[in-house]
Amino acid sequence: MGGGESAVAIIGVFIPIVAIVMTMLIPIFAFYFWYRVRVQKSKERMLAIEKGVELPPEPLPVAKPVTPLDSLRKGCVSLGVGVALIIFALVANVSEWFMGGGLIVTFVGVALVIWYRIATKKETKQEEA
């Protein structure tokens, strides 16, 4: 075995290890920094209350209403991803599971586009009435 082959073997061992470690570390860091921001906001509010400053209540997050256009957008994205998976499965000659996943995503996209058509027709009928 030459020196180049052992380096490739070492890299081949480290790639899955790094992938697993990063997969676990990214959410841990995300939750850690989210927690730190919440603690900092709480400390600032407590200091303001101790000094007698009147604070407005924290605004609640407002969810935007779902519109038919959201269904169209999600449907188009699903169609694109599904068709891309199917084409990749055909070109790369990978397993049937890959093709099945692409078909599922494609049919979800078709269902969302159909729902968009139904919802827009329903809205136009309500506007006419």
UniProtKB/TrEMBL annotation:
InterPro entries: DUF6249 (IPR046216). Keywords: Membrane, Transmembrane, Transmembrane helix. It holds the Pfam family DUF6249. The keyword Transmembrane helix applies. Residues 17-119 form the DUF6249 domain. It comes from the Bacteria. The chain crosses the membrane at residues 6-35, 72-91, 97-116. This is DUF6249 domain-containing protein. It comes from candidate division WOR-3 bacterium JGI_Cruoil_03_44_89.
